[in-house]
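worker-3 :: picked Protein NDRG2
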Amino acid sequence: MCNNVGVAVSVQEAEIAARILLDQGQEHSIETPHGLLHVTVHGTGNTRRPAILTFHDVGMESKSCFSTFFKFEEMQEIVKNFTVVHVDAPGQEEGAAPYPLGYVFKSNHGLNRCSVCFHWYSFRSVIGVGVGAGAYVLSRFTLSNPDSVEGLVLVNIDPNARGWMDWAAQKISTLTSSLTEQMLSHLFSQEETSGNTELVQSHRERISKAPNLSNIELFWKSYNSRRDLNIDRNSTLKCPVMLVVGDQAPYEDAAVECNSKLDPTTTSFLKPSFRIFLLQPSKLTEAFKYFIQGMGYMASSCMTRLSRSRTTSLSSSYSIEGSRSRSRTLSQGSQGGNLPPSPSNTMEVSC
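worker-3 :: tokens ->
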């Protein structure tokens, strides 16, 4: 009897330890020709499915950018079924030491890190989730490695290089605003920063007190010197794409323009009225599950119904490539595993 109790306790302790490990993730520091690569891995290590590869925005790191979303209760079904890999841009991870004076942060550092991460873990393919600068990096990676990426979720993307007007405005901002305030104007809308909400205040404090603030500035300058992605209908992302941009977000116009250049038969567009990653992860979780189902994964996952709203538009189409569906119509009454009834659909959904 005692032995049985002891075994039961040991199994329970092992389950608790596994749960903690899954929640916290396994952090890896990998030496590469491009510097130290910091990666946090969550999930089962299932190699039969693509890994979910994330890349964060400027002024953030993987934890502050994605923790709320990926730790949300309804996201756990996805985390249990996929390997989730969070990649930090050079010197941006928590506790990173400041780079020495004169360090050159090359614009392709983020791209190189995605490539190294992909080959280091021997991923068959990935589904990319990028925010801001991370969305740009993952788009470049996909354009260079189209067979390695099955789908992209791009939040607040700006695919364009900075023009002369943008360059002049940035120069003025550099002279009149602190780096912290520049980061906040990049991360939040003018209305949000003027309102000085608790969320804005917490990010202001986090950035201003960051010990690696000089590294953040290097990443910021690198992002501002980005090249144009040169996306158009003839030279576009070949995988299904879900674009997400907040209403009145700093890069709203750029995201709308990007949507006009992508293939409408494989592109979904969400325009929520709030900061969806940080304030309403449930809505993005729902859309993300539909997106994954459109690629033929988690077909039995149960979905709640998306209700109508004027604040968000979402369009997608359905086509067949090989033996698997590559894109999917998000219809109001769709349930997990059911194919859409028609080739295309445009609708209003609540997000």
